[in-house]
Each structure stands twice: as C-alpha cells, then as structure tokens.
Specification:
Elements: H1 9-19, H2 25-37, H3 41-57, E1 71-72, E2 74-78, E3 83-91, E4 99-105, E5 109-115, H4 116-119, E6 126-127, E7 134-135, H5 136-144, H6 163-170
Antiparallel strand pairs: 1-7, 2-3, 2-6, 3-4, 4-5
Helix pairs in contact: 1-2, 1-3, 2-3
C-alpha cells in the first residue's frame, strides 16, 4: 500500500477511482484536480489514502448485525439542509447498485438502507473528508445534544499514590 510520502500519480489515480462511487461527482473532480495541481497536494494524497483505507476495511452488509455498538465509517452531510448520513456497512455486490446500511438524519434519525448512488446525486451532499469513525452511540448522543460521557475515575491506589508512579516503581 502506498504511503503519502511515496505515492505515485498512477497509484493516486487508481486509489481515487476505487472510491469514486462513494463520492459526489463535484468532490471527486475537485479532489482529482487538487491531487496534482495544488500546493496542498500532500494533504489531498492523505485524504485519498485515508478514504480508500476506510472504505476497504468497512464491513459488508450484515457484517455488524450482532454488534452492540457498530461504528460509522463514513459521514455525508448537506451543509444547508441540516441532513446527515452515517455509513456503517457497505454493499459492493454490483457497480450500479451501491448501497449501504447506516443512520440517516433528515427530519429524525433512522437506521436503514441508503442507496449511495442516489445519495451522491443529491445537490449539496458532501462526503466529510475529515470524518473519523465513531460508534453509533456517540453519534446518537450528538444528535440528542447530550454531552460525551466522562470517563470513570481511576481505581483508588494504596495511600493515594497515582497508579502511573506505582507502575514505574514496580517495573
């Protein structure tokens, strides 16, 4: 797998073509242009590699059926219509029928099948290039406006000595 430091133009074009069906056409064209014609081309190479890796590793349909808190790997949004789609699983069985399973929030949040080929044709829909995969529970908390849960405090240690110091002394 190429890295951002050693990627060649043919590698970048091949990787971009492999993820083209997950991107709105305007974003694909802009990304392809900026890969080779921008002072920030290194950042665009990193975006292509990250997206390619994420899509390649994404579970297939029913791959998370028994997972208690599945992960959303991709995020699509409409900046002006306040709608979001979070993709959990992909179906790549045919080129013409790209669909996914995930959470859609248009008027209310609902799990279901999302036709990627139709989603990317909606005006103003964008694939979030800066999305980091998150558990579905975190997304639902965000939608409800709930704060992130605070981590449990560390277990008490003898004499109130911090655990990292005990670990250091024991090693």
């Amino acid at each position: 797998m190429p890295t951002p430091e050693n990627i060649t133009k043919p590698d970048a074009i091949r990787l971009l073509r492999e993820i083209e069906h997950f991107m709105p056409k305007a974003q694909y064209q802009l990304l392809r242009h900026d890969l080779f014609n921008s002072e920030e081309s290194q950042a665009f190479f990193e975006i292509v590699l990250r997206l390619h890796t994420t899509i390649a590793r994404m579970p297939i349909i029913r791959g998370t059926e028994y997972t208690k808190d599945p992960t959303a790997h991709l995020h699509y949004l409409t900046p002006y219509a306040n709608a979001d789609w979070w993709i959990i699983e992909k179906d790549t069985s045919t080129e013409s029928q790209r669909q996914a399973f995930g959470l859609a929030r248009i008027h209310c949040a609902e799990l279901g099948y999302i036709p990627i080929c139709e989603l990317i044709e909606i005006p103003d829909v964008e694939l979030d290039f800066h999305w980091k995969p998150k558990p579905l529970s975190a997304i639902r908390r965000h939608i409800k406006g709930e704060p992130e849960p605070t981590p449990a405090p560390p277990a008490p240690t003898p004499y109130g000595i911090p655990q990292d110091i005990i670990d250091m002394l024991e090693s």
